[in-house]
Write a structure and sequence with these properties.
The protein has two helices and five strands, in the order H-E-E-E-E-E-H. The protein is α+β, with helices and mostly antiparallel strands.
């Protein structure tokens, strides 16, 4: 039997339709579990970068301006008293490009803790910014950025760079600095 353009087109249309329906079905099955996993990841990150809280910071998050873009701000409260503010920030100057950091601040602006959310830095070098790989980022804990310069020492700051990963170290400082600048300008005035 000879194939005609019509039968080939109908076969292609049928295969495309079935494939699209299957993709839509799989998407509908995985959409909620993926959203729940992402939400849990964010809750875990917030519990690491904020002092103990008993509210739902994700439900109360809002956007704040930053260099022509915006950052997400989470308020941690314990019994209706603000105990910390977490800001989800980023940088685009890392060796691997874009990476995201979440920075937790005490209400006075002191850094409580920081944590990488996502990165593409070189394994064994720049990925040491990640707490799972090293404790390098702990040097930001309990530091007041008014006094502690958020730059690597090579650039006149107070941050010890990761050996052979100065670009990643600079990028981390850039992300933390971006969060701090937005905190000072848009969040701290609302806390008083």
């Amino acid at each position: 039997m000879k194939s005609s353009l019509l039968t080939m087109s109908l076969s292609l249309l049928l295969v495309s339709g079935v494939s699209s329906a299957l993709l839509a079905y799989v998407y509908s099955l995985t959409k909620d579990p993926i959203a729940q996993a992402n939400n849990q990841k964010k809750i875990d990150a917030l519990s690491q970068v904020l002092p103990e809280f008993n509210n739902e910071p994700i439900a109360e998050c809002y956007k704040i301006p930053s260099d022509g873009d915006s950052l997400t701000c989470y308020i941690g409260k314990k019994d209706d008293e603000i105990v910390g503010i977490a800001i989800e920030t980023y940088t685009n100057i890392a060796f691997g490009g874009h990476f995201s950091v979440i920075v937790g601040f005490k209400p006075d602006g002191t850094i409580y803790n920081t944590m990488i959310l996502e990165h593409k830095e070189t394994p064994g070098l720049g990925d040491k910014t990640d707490k799972e790989k090293s404790d390098w980022s702990n040097q930001f804990n309990d530091k007041d950025p008014n006094v502690f310069k958020l730059k690597v020492k090579k650039d006149g700051g107070d941050v010890d760079a990761i050996t052979a990963a100065t670009i990643s170290s600079r990028a981390y400082c850039d992300a933390v600095s971006r969060a701090y600048n937005s905190f000072i300008q848009y969040v701290k005035p609302t806390l008083q």
